[in-house]
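Supplementary Note 3. Input sequence used for the single-chain structure prediction.
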Amino acid sequence: MAIADVLEVARRDPSAVAVFTDFDGTLSHIHADPDAVVPVDGAVVALEALRQVLGAVAVISGRPIDFLARHIPEAVDLSGLYGIERRVGGVPGVIPEADAWRPVIREQLDDAQRRFPPEVIEDKGYSLTLHFRRTAELEDEVALWAHEVAAQTGLQARPAKMSIELHPPLPLTKGDAVRSLTSGQTAIVYLGDDHGDAPAWQELRAGAYEAIACVVVTSDDTPEELRGLATDIVSSPESAVALLNEIASVATGQVSSSPSN
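The predicted structure, written as discrete structure tokens, is reproduced below.
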């Protein structure tokens, strides 16, 4: 199955289609400064158009909701920090189990701020990301510290593009987010670009859906193993937006359901 199969369902019954997408590297380009990341032109308009016609549309990200909400309108649902935070129907929420881990994250944040320069550290409230895109010489030191912290505290150390993330040890992945945000839709699209998106693609491949599209948005540092999970590959966030627009056009009956390249 691939995007052509989803487009056929969208042409026949748009309410049966759900589109879920990552943010960084998918709707936006990766930036050395995480706070400077913004959606590429047309991304938000495409999401709003999809929300008007499809059964479900959401951004599923490792970012916190307060960051995502700056860029994504309330009509589009959000799952932040791999499902720790959510905004569904415009209503924000946090899973209660995460609260016990906030002091642990805060303690490690304080330690990280003593050890590393500010450009390494991204405070996400319920998690902590350590970047080495701008400080490649610190990669080994940062990774060693993160894994030592994980062993000592029970936090999970997760790899990401040019970074490592410390998360509460809660059984939450982007696959769980896909499952929780799907409400009867039979054709599902998920767009992503990194290790954290793999559970979402695995969820789609394991599910009993009429059609799925596992769309990998590639870049120079796309992990090769992710290509094996793809049903479709696009070359940039701009190409991802073009695909979203094609789905919206087919769902509204404006064009025929022919696949994008």
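Confidence is low (pLDDT under 50) at residues 256-261. The chain has nine helices and twelve strands.
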